[in-house]
Amino acid sequence: MAINYRLKEEEGRMEWPKSNDVIGTVNRGNPAESGLCTLCRSDCKGRCETWLSSLKGRKILYPRDFGFVTAGSANTCHLGVCYNSLRIQGYNYGVSGLPAGLSSSADDCIFPNVNIEGSFGNEVKTKFRLPIMTGALGSTFIAAKYWDSFATGAALVGIPIVIGENVVGIDKEAVINNGKISKAPELDRRIETFLKYYDGYGAIIVQMNVEDTRNGVAEYVINKYGDKAIIELKWGQGAKDIGGEIQVDSLDYALFLKERGYVVDPDPAKPEVQEAFRHGAVKSFARHSRLGYTDMSSVEKVSESFMESVAHLRRLGYKRISLKTGSYGMEALAMAIKYATDAKLDLLTVDGSGGGTGMSPWNMMETWGVPSILLHSKTIEYASILAAKGDKVVDIALAGGLAREDHIFKALALGAPYTKLVCMGRAAMIPGFLGSNIEGVLKPERKAKVNGNWDELPISVREIGASTEELFAGYYDLQKKVGADEMKNIPYGAIAMWTLADKLAAGLQQLMAGARRFDLSQISRGDVFSANRETERETKIPFITDVLDESAKKILNS
Length: 558
Known about the structure:
By secondary structure, the chain is of the alpha/beta class. The chain has a domain at 118-244 and 289-424: Aldolase class I (TIM Barrel). The chain is built from 22 helices and 22 strands. Strands 8-21-20-19-18-14-13-10-9 form a nine-stranded parallel sheet. Strands 15-17-16 form a three-stranded antiparallel sheet, with helices on one face. Strands 1-2 form a two-stranded antiparallel ribbon. Strand 6 and strand 7 (126-128) form a beta hairpin. The chain starts with 5 loop residues before the first strand and ends with a helix. The mean pLDDT is 95. GO terms for molecular function: glutamate synthase (NADPH) activity.
């Protein structure tokens, strides 16, 4: 995805180009700053940067057609406050954070030796091999359909994956009586799919909203899985400021969801709505979740309620607890950071506007909330206030429109030293879609099971290869990990996720090596600079020519 843009003055917004000639990518739909289409389809035939990277891996880090071309960046004029208006620092001497056993010689200081493993958590540390995690993949049907690829891929790569809200509540096979779950097959499937390949890196995180709390999800998970899962309280997300939604096209299912206690729109119990449905005027129903803290009238009451919720989870036996908040204003952000810190939580995910979803009102997504870079900047400002008071600030993950290796570096630098991870929602799902579509063609007997959408490989895939070994650059690398016999059990979507992760990992290692940071812990706010004064003002990251300017003048005057 090209990161150049033009200003559409008549609409007051940036327009990001659909193609990048240098790496040979093109977007099917309208691209966002992340490089993903604003509407990402599971049946897409390509070929955005994330889609193509899920096949070619780290090759997409480089310009195409080597030996026949030269390439030069056009991304040197920066408008507005966004992640593209941060640029990455590079240094011409020194090194920091070398892994044990390596020297500062040029032979050791090569990008493959950069350590991108890390951990998060308060008392119990959760390790990861790459500083990314998935977004919350909950009750939207697209999450359920491709879960095998997502969860298997996350476990193999060694990153946390989040089971989003309402998974139990919408499961027809789940048995819930008086706030107690006795059976939850879909939730079990999701947890156990991840645990099958879990090797000590990554985590399975189970998110809860109002309905999940009422239904007893926390009690069910701790009783069945113990400390194998992290429990997450949800305050919000970047895509919307109301509860989560799904759409159903069955009147019976809509009535079932209403009986389960959900808000369903239009109301399927009304005779006139049922009549409209039978005549085709109403074709689907939207299931909504409830707002949180509606019975609270002050910050103090929210604090008291939140602390009691955490205490309840501790009493149940949870050792790892996280919080997810959305792109509310500054007060809610401060509350999230303060309360998560005081409660000694293990992770706080801050999701800015621009963050994705499987189902939210579109104009709400377009117009509500705090854009990611502004929210993330204030997150670190507020975290620093707590740190200055001597508090051990909760570990943070930043989310909202982040998809590439440069996004990872910039977010970690902007959020240093508190940010440990970057949360990627829609980007992490693309390899699951692509791999499943390929598997459905190459293994027609599995097409329905993996929810493949293609009858044949499109030309965008055929020009790369015709077999899994040809198509996925990471195939043999993954085979080395799991063994040749086990490869037949790995969903192609998981192979694609492994391949994408390898591209992100290599790209991040290269950027870190250029900044002379050979360990994630060494990335600092000094490793990025603002490309315009407006971004400097909002992020407190100094402008390009001000960075090290005093040092430069000392050299000149020496």
